[in-house]
Fold this protein.
Amino acid sequence: MAHDVRGLFIALEANQQAQDRALAQYSRFLIERGTLSSYQNVDQIAERQLAMRFPDLVERVAP
Amino acid sequence: MALGLAGRMTYLNVTERTFLQEQGDARSLRFEMLPANRGIIFDRNGEPLAVSTPVESVWLDPTRTKLNSTDIASLARAIGLNERELAGKIGRYSGHEFMFVKRRVSPEIAARVAALHIEGVHFQREYRRYYPAGETAAHVVGITNVDDQGQEGAELAYDGELKSVQGRKLVLRDRRGQAVKDVEYVAAPHFGRDLALSLDLRLQFFAYRELRTAIEEHHAKAGSVVMLDAHTGEILALANEPSFNPNELTRAGADVRRNRAVTDAYEPGSTVKPLTVLAALQSGRFAEDSVIDTTPGYMRVGRMLVKDPINRGPLSLGEVLARSSQVGIAKVALALDERMVFDTFLRAGFASPTSSGLPGEVDGRVPDSQLKNPVVRTTLAYGYGLTVTPLQLAQAYLTLATGGIRLPISILRLDAPPVGERAFETGIVAAIVRMMTGVDSLHGTAPKARVAGYTIAGKTGTSRKVGPGGYDEDRHVAFFAGMAPAVDPRVVVIVVIDEPQGDIFGGGEVAGPVFSRVVARALRILNVEPEAAS
């Protein structure tokens, strides 16, 4: 019985640590995503690297 | 690496330290922290706006831990500190039981320190809040203080939902750090709830960029742009300049941290004229095609001279609005009952908070104590003698865009459209919006507000600011308030530029182009089909 409790406790602690690590990684991924997908970044890549420009005329391009 | 070591780090609270360390060597009974992070703030599409990421603060107890010079050298190197300075600091703290070696280091640095296996060097978990959108959305998202409490913006308004509380447990561990027994769960960790704001970061980005460009171009003091979803009253963008980088707080003074779109009330000038004309139509004394003779281009009201730049002669009610004739509006106002224009302003939402929930929101001021005085009624009708915030002005135009339904303003993403309240008759509002569509024509007051491919409806405003000696000839606030497309509007946009310098200071010239650029981007991003004849 005592052994079971100890085993469960170790499992709980491992899970809590795994959760903590996963959340920490998630937060870092989110920050990275926020930086990469910022419109500032997207706009600059579109205009400077891909030579795209904002169209003057608006057209319907999809049905 | 960093992740694998996390388990080795002990999270101790200062107050419990002595108790722990006085326990025996073989086994120790410890309070340990169960970390919990503050809720994440997202925009309406799931883009992160505020994210807490774990950092470690490195500490030691100088009374118990005596580091040799090798340890100090390697510790300093791992953290990137000056070795001599660190040794000096440890010396100064020799009588203290607690000393931070370095606060809030990255997990990578913490892992390097942990890998040194220096006995007595501990870690305390803290969180650092990152704001990926930086200055772009700083006022709406807000900031937290070092204790992770919301101080401004959504961080403050929704602190109750966002905040987290660390859990604690009492654990018996052996010398190797292995848990022998979980003695007691003192408190379960409480994770903060995530929040989805109504903002669309893409629209926010363009609103902020175009606002800043215009402010630089006109050397203006400040400005705001508000964009509302015309169907739901959600704030899609709310930008102010000056702004600040919430990731480097130390540099930001109170002035740049102010969310001017809700904390600053301005005299709205001609942007209220559509509401005056609305009051005229509601009274039944005027129709869309009623003619008002503005000859000779000026008139006296009491001791005040009301004048237009030129004599515009007889104008229809619609032309009075399109040309923004002061004389025409004055004649309309004086033909109405004392409280009619005032009541219309109140119904449009002036003088009451917008319910956005944004901290620091002011009500503005629409006094009714002197409405018996024709001068007061006249000036009120063209936007002087009252103050409104840019967000209140946005709500008033939203009421026109919805066909007369006043919607609550929301800074949170809504799952369903809110229930509004009818403020004005649909037919009358439709007539007002129709009258506002000529604003971007070549003869209108803001040809530069034009958006290729779409018909817009709007109104310019240029109000003088009050100086020490009354209204100042040289200090203005330039406005453009409008909606697009004119039929079934998708967005309502308010642009306010405070104190543009130089010869160009009018709402049409200064604020109109910002409206045009922001709306052009917004309608594409929101997939609004252009009109056939573009």
